[in-house]
Design goal:
mainly alpha, binds zinc ion
């Protein structure tokens, strides 16, 4: 998806980085700034980012929940409080 406009950072480049950005895998402040700047002037990419983030949160939710379900069925109630220790 592209808005067709001219930007400092091309839409294609921003969209290819969106998933990485959401996963927190981009550590260069300059790159993050460039992408955020792009979102400000490009509604299409901003929407795409929101969509990706929702999908990411949803997936995270499902994974967390199924993980907790498993723990609840196989262990004592106290064990649920330790669910993040393995990370
Ligand atoms: Zn764009």
């Amino acid at each position: 998806m592209s808005c067709g406009g001219i930007h400092e950072t091309p839409c294609s480049e921003v969209l290819s980085e969106v998933a990485l950005l959401i996963d927190g895998e981009i550590n260069e402040p300059g790159k993050i700034h460039a992408i955020e700047h792009h979102f400000e002037e490009c509604g299409a990419c901003c929407e795409e980012m929101e969509h990706e983030r929702r999908m990411h949160d949803l997936l995270h939710d499902v994974l967390t929940r199924s993980c907790m379900d498993t723990q609840e069925s196989i262990s004592s109630p106290n064990f649920a409080g330790q669910k993040f220790q393995f990370r």
